[in-house]
Structures are given as structure tokens and as C-alpha cells.
Amino acid sequence: MVERIELLKISPKKLLIINTILVFISILTNTLIQVFCIPSIWAFILLIICFANFISSPFFRNQRLLLFTSFINGIFFCVNIYCIIFLWQVQILSLILIIWGIGILTFIPYFFATQVLWQNLIKPKIKSLRIFFLTGILISFSIAGYFGYEYKKAISEISRFQESGFNKFEKSYMTEKILGMHFIYHTRFCEFDGWRPPIHEPALILGMWLNTNYDPIYVSLEKRIEFYKKFYPNKKIKFECSCAYTYSSDYFEDKRLK
User: Is the full-model pTM beyond 0.70?
Assistant: First the structure.
């Protein structure tokens, strides 16, 4: 007999259906409205793992498997907290839009985070789940801290780049992301339709958050694109996604990206 989940007083089977629908709606909404746009490859893989684990974990009975799923749910909890922080600008507006049913979408991360918190920390099936869940959270925070460190280090490298008259560029994972900001990588939620950077790179955004949202390159967007083409001539700068439908031609016909 499958135990009922006390938090919501519904069976895991019904919760499976609800969560699957909400995951589908989240993906569909991002495809149509482009909230998070195109996730970077590693972020996309992480989301698939987290979503699959989250939906299926209530049915697992094997203890070792439960410990592993609890660890992944710890990471998924942090993913939801990240989404909540990223969408802070629309939280109040969403309360108003709930009347039309749209605003409730913003609170899906709250619902998911509450579930994994309840199932793995507050009311776990076995006590040892708490340790693995908290380990997943600790590792997530450690990775975020590492991104912050790499961003801070990249600030110094970008500073030397500017001091050299924009001639000597030290290539690294993070300096590439910083140079590609505002035309490849977006750094915040864009509430307006139109021209938007299409790639969502959590490493870059977390790095910025942990360094007071500091952008170390003081040049125009045109110059930024010019430098990126110079130092990364083989990298793609235009993607099949303008993150907007109403003014998509503004992006696809922008001469600066040719």
C-alpha cells in the first residue's frame, strides 16, 4: 500500500500527475514566453535529471536509491530557490495576475521546493534522507560559491584586458561569458518583448549575484560584439531564438550580429 503524502493529503500517484503537468507547463511557458530562454547545456542536463528524479522519487522503496534521490532533491531544492530569486521582479505582479490564472506559474518553484523540503527534511521516509538532502544543498552552495570566485577572478582578467587597450584577452570559461553578456547571455529577467540575449547561463548569473551584479566591461554593445568576434571567431553569436515573438525581426535582422 503506497503511503499518502501528509503535506498535501493526496496519493503519490495523483501527485505524480500534478507534478508532471506542472513540469510540462513550466517547459511550455518558457518555450512560448521565454522566461529563462535557452538554458546552457550543463543547466539543461541538470534540469532533466532533477525533473525526472523529482517526479519519480515518491515511488522508490530501495533504501540506497532513496538516499541518491534525496541528494538530487537537495540540488533541485536549490534550483527552485534560484528560480525564485531570478524572478523576484515579477513576484508582486504575479499575485495580481493570479486572478487570470497566469500569475500562478511564477509560484510553481515554491510548490516544488516545499514538496522536496517536506519529503526529504521535515517528514522523510527514513531519517538518513536528511543527511543526503542537506549534502545536496551544501554542494549546490559550494558550486555557487565557486562560480562567484571564478567571476571575481575574471574581473581582474577583464581589468587587465582594458588596461592593454583591449588587445590582450585572457580566455577562460568565465571571461567568455562576461564578454558575451547582453547579446548572447542575459543576466536578468527581461519583462519586455523584443531584442533579448537568448542564453541563460546560471554560472554567469550566480557569479554576478555574488559580486554585487558588477559588469566589469565598460564598452558599448557594438564594441562588445566586435571584441567577441575577434577573440572567439568560431563561436556562434546568433541563435534560433529571439526570446520574443512580437518583435523577433529586431533580433534576426540586427546588423550587429552578422
Answer: yes
